[in-house]
Amino acid sequence: MTSRTCWGSSFGFGVAGVQWNVLHAAGIFAVGFGVAWAAGVWATARMLARPPRRGYGWALAKGRASNPMEMEPPRAYETWSVRSRGVDLPVWDVRGDVAGGETLVLTPGWSDSRVTMLGRVGVLARVCGRVVVWDPPGHGEAGGRCELGAREWEDLLAIAERADEDGRGVLLYGYSMGAGISLAAASRGRDGLVKGVIAEAPYRRPDTPARNVLHRSGLPWRLTLPVALGLSGVRAGVGWRWRGFDRGALAGEAHRRGIGVLVLVGEEDGVCPPAESSAVAMAGMGKLVVIPGAGHADLWDDAWRAGACLEAVREVVAAWAGGAKEGPPGAH
User: Fold this and answer.
1) Which residues contact 213 (CB under 8 A, 6 or more apart)?
2) Which end of the chain is more exposed for a tag (fewer CB within 10 A), N or C?
């Protein structure tokens, strides 16, 4: 009887020990998973807010022009800056080929800068009087922190106001994140400041390019990106759901204000899908130009593609300079 009791007690203690070990292991796993998840959220949010700096050093390493005078052909330019939201934003004011022509303000995309935009500057200057290109906060040589387009439209408006020397208004050109910044600025600026917006590879919501970039890089995003973006939105003052960010709605508001919209996108863009660019163009009652065979970052790298983009830009610049706006959207 005593031996049975001891055996039963030992068995009971054994089962309890196994259960405790399982719970202990599960607890360790949960803690480890939580730490890894929190670290992933922090790393993702930090990466979004601190994009790679591509300035003079980047150009030197790539053997590329680092300022407009180093382009072929060289372009005369002036350097000035605007202080916006406590940050000094450096600007190149590049002379174009059209005397008395339109002023175009060029806004880079995420991780880009004045330097990486020089290829576009050289081509766009052919159809404008001036091309003004700047470094947004957290990019190039500008201080501050990237806010993924949530607040940079305020900085762009400060640049545009300074560039509008003759009071005739300016044109805005933005690439990727810069396209959304340009649409936001056009929809919220004073009447008469912006005549038209050229949006290259725009997207509607902030998660679209972030998700696609992380996915293409083989990095995890499903459990970390939504929280990282939510925290970034709260920090930028637009809230967890990024209120007022929808670039389609902003394009629609720009159209209601009489501002023309041209959308350029690569047919094979895997970062900002053509479907999203099409939705932005349709909302803004603008013109959609899809460049065959092009991706997200190579619309201006090939002579034929650059020529197609320039022809579309030339057409709307002429129309907007005369006060006419683009008609219903159509793919070309």
Assistant:
1) 271
2) N
**Distance separating alpha carbons of residues 51 and 63, to the nearest angstrom:** 21
Angle at 194 between CA 190 and CA 196, to 5 degrees: 145
> Is 259 in contact with 252 (CB distance < 8 Å)?
no
Helix (H) or strand (E) holding 155: helix 152-163
3-state class of 206 per DSSP? coil
Q: Distances in Å between the alpha carbon of 326 and those of 174, 255, 282, 320, 321?
A: 18, 10, 12, 8, 12
Measured between alpha carbons, how far is 46 from 39 in angstroms, rounded to an integer?
10
- Is the residue at 263 inside a domain? yes
Token duo for residue 164: 């509008």
Residue 274: predicted pLDDT? 96
Asked whether residue 120 is assigned to any structural domain, the reply reads: yes
Query: Cβ(66)–Cβ(121) under 8 Å?
Result: no
Q: How far apart are CA 105 and CA 260, in angstroms?
A: 15
Range of the domain at 89: 53-204+246-321
> Which residue do the tokens 């939105």 mark?
233
The total number of residues shown for the chain amounts to 332
SS3 state at 281? helix
| 277: CATH | 3.40.50.1820
Check if the beta carbon of residue 148 is closer than 8 Å to that of residue 121: no
Mean pLDDT over 21-34 rounds to: 64
φ, ψ for residue 77 (rounded to 5)? -155, 160
For tokens 């660019």, name the residue: 277
Residue 36 in any domain: the answer is no
pLDDT single digits (tens) 154-178: 999 999 999 999 999 999 999 999 9
